[in-house]
Design a protein that fits this description.
Elements: H1 25-38, H2 51-58, H3 62-74, E1 78-80, E2 88-90, H4 96-108, H5 113-134, H6 137-148, H7 150-155, H8 159-173, H9 177-197, H10 207-225, H11 229-248
Antiparallel strand pairs: 1-2
Helix pairs in contact: 1-3, 4-9, 5-8, 5-9, 5-10, 5-11, 6-8, 6-10, 8-9, 10-11
Keywords: DNA-binding, Transcription, Transcription regulation
GO molecular function, one term: DNA-binding transcription factor activity
Protein name: GntR family transcriptional regulator
Amino acid sequence: MPRQEPLAPLTAPETSANAVRSPKTAELVAHTLRKMIVDGQLKDGDFLPYEADLMAHFQVSRPSLREAVRVLESDRLVEVRRGSRTGAKVRVPGPEVVARPAGLLLALSGTSLTDVMTARIAIEPYAAGLLAENGSQQAHRELQRLIDEIPTAWETGGLAAASTELHRRLVELSGNATLTMIAGMLHEIFEKHMTTAFQGVQNVVPKAQYSKLMRSYVRLAVLVSERKGAEAEAHWRRHMENASAALRKGYEKTRVRDIIY
């Protein structure tokens, strides 16, 4: 039996004093359920109560309830499997939710891949400094674990994926939720583009290049463990600037619009 949480009373969203239009019933239901998800009353993986229970609780019709669920589905807050007997499942979205519209806006403005990489360089080194200065011991151990997995990833042809995960988790481990969201969005845009650009290219990194990369990762872990924030930030900026120059070679004028099709 799927876990289902008690329901909150129906509440209306806050509106400005000059607002005239009254919210539709479906909007009120969607707002109440959305607020429960945001407040943590409904968590990732929870199922919404059965349709009949929701209708009785909110005193709404089946069409209004289904419209409310469709609103949540369009917000990527629930996942509905058609024909399923378990109903709608809560799915807390990740950076991909903002990456797609952000990618479209960047594409419409003619933004280059270089521009995206420059933004990443502005964020990740600062996050490395935060992680060094303010990160917990558990966060530092997690960074070390990710770096310890790099040699196996290189041997098995998974270095690119392991490095991407390291970059992503580095910002998450810094503890700054806003930086994490922005960095996650930029990672989504950049990685989708690079996956398309290098499709069919053999995923092999020469040993000399791998050794240089590994030394840089190890140096980062040392600086973080010693809580040398300024040094960690400076080191990671140099690392990303060097990596950016190598990744962008031949793609300097490539625009973001390539990834949205």
